[in-house]
């Protein structure tokens, strides 16, 4: 990240993962296209033409990698780069993909990784691999003759040099699945996944609290002096809102960004969601939040309403809908306990 036949004819079942999540199980794998004809897509608002279907894709990070796996495209992959702090991968629905595709690096993706893997297409994002300061950018890859695709959640929006996000987060997820489906010739599979995800999200939203009963939620990623959190263009915005909550930072026209603790205190969230990853454990983050003096009068802290989701739940990935379902259950219980007596 910074520092987831026609579609209507497909029946979805739920597959439980090792960490208690459920995801819509995709239909049987369809063969990817072997066509060499050009495909034109819209990526970050720009029309981009790919001359041929990639055969040796290199990806950065867990959410992006699992988008490829969810579409059954592991045979098109040369490898992925991913820090090893993204949770247990043994019980995920795409374990076969992780078993089959080479783990190139435990660090951020580099040009050297791509060249060593003989990659012919790179799928990454701004602050999800692509960075100006280290020279790993789509333009740099283009000079090497290697095309790329930018994760839609991470598209720069031009409001500032680094601000990101051009559409609602679930729309970004569906956009990328649709584009990948078109490029790799698995459009029906992509459409079926999207239909299943929409059905799963709609089922949660139908039971979610409404109006003033919607709990206010703060997403805590990291940071002690200043918290790193999510504005309205990163996945937590709709993970929270579709689950029945209100992201207290949804007025920020950015994806992931730093705010001040005073703004958290002022907005007084009812619930804090911790993003679990990195060297600082979720339990360590929880203890910090509960002991940090400036937060002592915040409702979520006073009532110890802290919920944990994995990193991959909270970046664009095929696990976003299951995260909505799990958080939705928790927020309904919060709304029930805070409901005024009749």
UniProtKB/TrEMBL annotation:
<comment type="similarity">
    <text>Belongs to the bacterial solute-binding protein 8 family.</text>
</comment>
<keyword id="KW-0732">Signal</keyword>
<protein>
    <submittedName>
        <fullName>Iron transporter</fullName>
    </submittedName>
</protein>
<dbReference type="InterPro" id="IPR050902">
    <property type="entry name" value="ABC_Transporter_SBP"/>
</dbReference>
<dbReference type="InterPro" id="IPR002491">
    <property type="entry name" value="ABC_transptr_periplasmic_BD"/>
</dbReference>
<dbReference type="Pfam" id="PF01497">
    <property type="entry name" value="Peripla_BP_2"/>
</dbReference>
<feature type="domain" description="Fe/B12 periplasmic-binding">
    <location>
        <begin position="56"/>
        <end position="342"/>
    </location>
</feature>
<feature type="signal peptide">
    <location>
        <begin position="1"/>
        <end position="24"/>
    </location>
</feature>
């Amino acid at each position: 990240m910074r520092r987831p036949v026609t579609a209507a004819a497909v029946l979805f079942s739920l597959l439980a993962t090792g960490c208690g999540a459920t995801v819509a199980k995709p239909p049987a794998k369809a063969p990817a296209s072997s066509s060499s004809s050009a495909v034109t897509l819209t990526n970050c608002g720009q029309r981009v033409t790919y001359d041929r279907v990639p055969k040796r894709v290199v990806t950065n990070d867990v959410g992006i990698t699992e988008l490829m796996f969810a579409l059954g495209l592991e045979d098109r992959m040369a490898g992925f780069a991913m820090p090893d702090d993204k949770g247990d991968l043994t019980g995920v629905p795409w374990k076969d993909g992780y078993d089959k595709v080479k783990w190139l690096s435990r660090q951020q993706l580099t040009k050297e990784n791509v060249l060593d893997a003989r990659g012919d297409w790179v799928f990454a994002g701004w602050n999800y691999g692509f960075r100006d300061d280290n020279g790993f950018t789509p333009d740099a890859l283009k000079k090497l003759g290697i095309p790329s695709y930018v994760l839609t959640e991470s598209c720069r929006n031009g409001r500032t040099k680094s601000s990101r996000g051009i559409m609602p987060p679930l729309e970004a997820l569906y956009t990328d699945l649709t584009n990948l489906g078109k490029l790799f010739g698995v459009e029906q599979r992509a459409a079926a996944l999207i239909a299943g995800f929409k059905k799963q999200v709609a089922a949660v939203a139908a039971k979610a609290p409404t109006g003033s009963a919607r709990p206010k939620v703060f997403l805590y990623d990291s940071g002690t002096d200043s918290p790193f959190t999510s504005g309205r263009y990163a996945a937590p915005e709709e993970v929270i809102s579709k689950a029945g909550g209100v992201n207290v930072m949804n007025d920020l026209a950015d994806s992931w960004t730093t705010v001040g603790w005073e703004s958290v205190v002022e907005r007084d969230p009812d619930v804090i969601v911790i993003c679990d990853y990195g060297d600082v454990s979720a339990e360590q983050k929880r203890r910090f939040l509960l002991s940090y003096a400036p937060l002592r009068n915040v409702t979520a802290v006073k009532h110890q309403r802290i919920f944990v989701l994995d990193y991959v739940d909270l970046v664009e990935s095929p696990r976003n809908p299951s995260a909505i379902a799990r958080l939705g259950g928790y927020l309904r219980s919060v709304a029930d306990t805070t409901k005024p007596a009749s």
